[in-house]
Amino acid sequence: MTEQDSLITQLFDNEDELTDKQKKIIIAAIDSFSEKGYAATSTSEIAKKAGVAEGTIFRHYKTKKDLLLGIVAPTMAKLLAPFVIKDLYKVLDTKYENFEDFLRAMIENRVVFAKKNLPLLKILIQEIPFHPELKDQFFEHIIKKVFDRYVKVTEHYQEKGQIIDIPPQQVIRLTLTTIMGYLIGRYILFPNADWNDEDEIEATIQFLMRGLGITD
Amino acid sequence: MTEQDSLITQLFDNEDELTDKQKKIIIAAIDSFSEKGYAATSTSEIAKKAGVAEGTIFRHYKTKKDLLLGIVAPTMAKLLAPFVIKDLYKVLDTKYENFEDFLRAMIENRVVFAKKNLPLLKILIQEIPFHPELKDQFFEHIIKKVFDRYVKVTEHYQEKGQIIDIPPQQVIRLTLTTIMGYLIGRYILFPNADWNDEDEIEATIQFLMRGLGITD
Amino acid sequence: MTEQDSLITQLFDNEDELTDKQKKIIIAAIDSFSEKGYAATSTSEIAKKAGVAEGTIFRHYKTKKDLLLGIVAPTMAKLLAPFVIKDLYKVLDTKYENFEDFLRAMIENRVVFAKKNLPLLKILIQEIPFHPELKDQFFEHIIKKVFDRYVKVTEHYQEKGQIIDIPPQQVIRLTLTTIMGYLIGRYILFPNADWNDEDEIEATIQFLMRGLGITD
Amino acid sequence: MTEQDSLITQLFDNEDELTDKQKKIIIAAIDSFSEKGYAATSTSEIAKKAGVAEGTIFRHYKTKKDLLLGIVAPTMAKLLAPFVIKDLYKVLDTKYENFEDFLRAMIENRVVFAKKNLPLLKILIQEIPFHPELKDQFFEHIIKKVFDRYVKVTEHYQEKGQIIDIPPQQVIRLTLTTIMGYLIGRYILFPNADWNDEDEIEATIQFLMRGLGITD
DNA sequence: CATGAATGAGATTTCATTCAT
DNA sequence: AATGAATGAAATCTCATTCAT
């Protein structure tokens, strides 16, 4: 089982039962969309790469856009996953007694996720500006939910005196920005530079802790 | 003279003399490219928006891609501009005795630039991943030059004991990331949210100062 | 079954199975190319004449030039056919004991061929000077092979004392030139003049025999 | 003065006074037309090669076709020249007492002409099939006149008992065909093969003499 | 005379989508 | 379900020609 396969399995398999061809179509589409962008990818190219007939794509997805959405929607769901924990506070109290632990856990978790789902994330990032539906979905289902949770988390640690007293949304913006900045630079802009991941992640955490944390 | 006009004037006029139609083509192309992306914009659409025959576009730009490059290249040049100062140290010594002043000046300068050249920056950001030539140009002409300058600036302030002692490239990555993060969130992702720019910028500077600066 | 149909059947059908539309495209292309030349024929014109959507042409031939090559290549093959006989000498010994018989047979055979494939030959002759690929193909696959065979044939009859003793390549040049000259004048330059084919062919054979043969 | 220049001078200069630019246009057009064909040559290409503005071409020639005609017409005139001699019989009686001398003189003269005007002849040969006006002109002004003259010449030598007794038009067809065949093979189809011109011409003359002449 | 920007008709080519098999 | 030929609208690009300067 290839890396790609596992990705597909993880993201797509559990929802519906996908035929073999359908999986191949999705894999091919992810590959092309992430590399050339949605608009610059032709369905015939996807068909060829997937080893299916052109018509087969349209048997499963009414339009090309449907195919994009069929890829992006589950990606968003997964992106959201770690933030959708029911008893968040309990988790925080028991697992991450202080902010730094939480930050570290979150960053590491998301870095792993990013590494595994790089093409999918690229598609997400690159296509959102051009498709209002995506933008809306992203805003409605991701941003809001993550934001709400994260506001609570921030307040939680602010109450504990571990985060400086600025509006939670600023904390969130600066945190996410810093993490996304690392991921984009690392995996999208300069994937070929030689990175010492451990060092960079540590530096990033230290930077965030100094910028946002209170240490006595 | 419209806002757009002044942008064009600034960015494109001084290099070559552009005909009236050529200016209109550039304005229309910027508009469409930034809104729908390069691949999803048709030349006929640009021609119509510019009030020009489609053939006219191809008289000035041999291909559609040439048009993109003709827009992006000068943008890169301008993006680079503030970092290309000859006597950098003198400027630093006299104008920005401490890091915070420099940071503040730079951020404000780039925020103004971003506000004015938003569509151009959108095009730049959105198209770089899809066009290796752009990526190369960007890397060669922008990143390297800015990086070199900025390494020196960082070392300058590190010697003065105003920046913590970590590798300059980490300082740079974290700084640029934080600033870009602000700009992208502010102007590209959520331009319609209600932002209190002054507060956010101040928060960003404070965050950077805490994260990177040494204050005694 | 029309005349055209049989031509296509003969030349194109046996290689691959062509769809009905593809045949129509080929017939239309041959018609237009031979009449107006490749460069002056538009694909839309071919599509219209073939009763096919323009896109259909490009489904079968990636470019307009491919269409030309798809027509010309099999023509070359057929042109070559009569010269590709395995046991050439046996044929000569049994069927054509003397040079005149051979000459007569060859001329008649090629005249029939020319009459039947006139448009294709026109295309071949007219386009070869403009397309290096064609020229190369023609040289490599036709000229060389025909030439080699023909040198042997010439030597065969020279040994029998039926052809004058000059270099074989001169014999060949003069023979082909004379035959081609007749065909081009007859069918391409002045197809509408009133020709007495039998007389002309007989005169041509007599001319060649006097010019090249030895009769005791 | 270049070779090209002399060609132009000879063919075009004496008729009208041509400006410097006009000459350049003609030279460029001859070059491109002969190499790529009329239909595949763009006026802008000619303008560029000639070093003039696109508009300049149309100042001198109303249409692209006019340019072609402006090149081809004088070529035809020159092609005809040697046959337009008033007192043909006197010339024949005094200069060329026998057919072989005449043949030799004519071939040599036309070979020289062909060598010097190769591109022009290529254009003539290649474009005639596609332009009815050219065909008509060629037929009316060249073929007929040459034919008429040549019928008389043939009859002249037939009366003298030097040419076999077949219809003059057959003599003409076979003669021209043989000469053209040599020229086309020599200069158009295989200009790069190594030719021994003297030998080939001599062989051609001998061939014609054997095929058509009477030697006692 | 000369220029070259501008045009718009048309050429080649691409592509999402349909449909008969 | 799958195929792939066919479509026609639209995309990119070319080009002969015009015209203001």
UniProtKB/TrEMBL annotation, chains A, B, C, D:
Residues 42-61 bind DNA. InterPro entries: Homeodomain-like_sf, HTH-type_Tx_Regulator, HTH_TetR, Tet_transcr_reg_TetR-rel_C_sf. Pfam families: TetR_N (PF00440). SUPFAM superfamilies: Homeodomain-like, Tetracyclin repressor-like, C-terminal domain. Keywords: DNA-binding, Repressor. Residues 19-79 form the HTH tetR-type domain. GO terms for molecular function: DNA binding. Coiled coil: none annotated. This is TetR/AcrR family transcriptional regulator. The lineage of its organism: Bacteria, Bacillati, Bacillota, Bacilli, Bacillales.
